[in-house]
Amino acid sequence: MIATILLSIGIVFLAELGDKSQLMALTFALRYRWWVVLGGIATATAGVHLISVAIGYFLGAALPTRAISLVAALTFLAVGLWTLREHLSAPDGHDEPKAPRSTAAPFLVVLSAFLLAELGDRTMFATAALATDNSWFGVWLGSTVGMVAADALAIAVGIAVGKHLPERLIGICSGLLFLYFGTATLLGAAAPSLSALAGMGVAAIAPVVLGVALLVRRGRLRGEEIGGEPVVAEGAQRQG
Q: Total structural domains in the chain?
């Protein structure tokens, strides 16, 4: 049992290094409190891996992975657009709070995002394969611990980065990252024959274009504000 647990921890931990789940965990850590993110990840991971070890590879092969990917893509895109809207609607110099007062909604967002992202993922198939020749409980426990440990590492990075960046910049960057995840997931479902490198490049176009548009819009708004200040001052002098 102990050997199975250690084997599962090692395999899943190494498989998750540099995977999209780590980037998602880092992005969520920039947005929400770390224990809310870690709790959502642990709950989603335990549920997905329980399915994979209980039913095995055959259920994984039968999962409607394309439909799940489409739902996940829409979730990421919606979270990204909502995050950008929330931070761009705040006036300059007034950052949003670093974390919402209620933790229920963020927990559900993290839980649903990771649940959809991990269903049909390679980690699920690896866990199912391990469960065919080893104790299902040991594989379930080890794979869950391994993935949570890998994502906790990404959360720590997100916390360290978040301490040195303005909240508004963090919100905009996290929104753009969610748009990237959504576009990449959508491409993976719509064009499965597309190579991973090409998919990453194409997926990066959407947030890059939107980011440039936001910078241009911000520059124009600042220009209008600066240009309007002398007019206001002149009008006040005439009234005086």
A: 1
Q: Distance between CA 149 and CA 144 in Å, rounded?
A: 8
**Is residue 14 situated within a structural domain?**
yes
Structure tokens at 63: 């999962």
- In angstroms, the CA 181 to CA 57 distance is 26
Could you tell me the residue range of the domain that residue 148 belongs to? Answer: 2-203
The crossing angle, in degrees rounded to 10, of helices 196-203 and 205-239 is 10
Cβ pair 12, 126 in contact under 8 A = yes
Structure tokens at 134: 């080893």
d(CA 175, CA 197): 22
Give me 197's structure tokens. Answer: 């490198």
What is the pTM assigned to this prediction? 0.67
For the chain, 240 residues long, the average pLDDT of each consecutive 10-residue run is 85 80 84 90 90 64 67 79 71 47 74 82 76 81 92 88 75 80 81 75 81 73 60 44
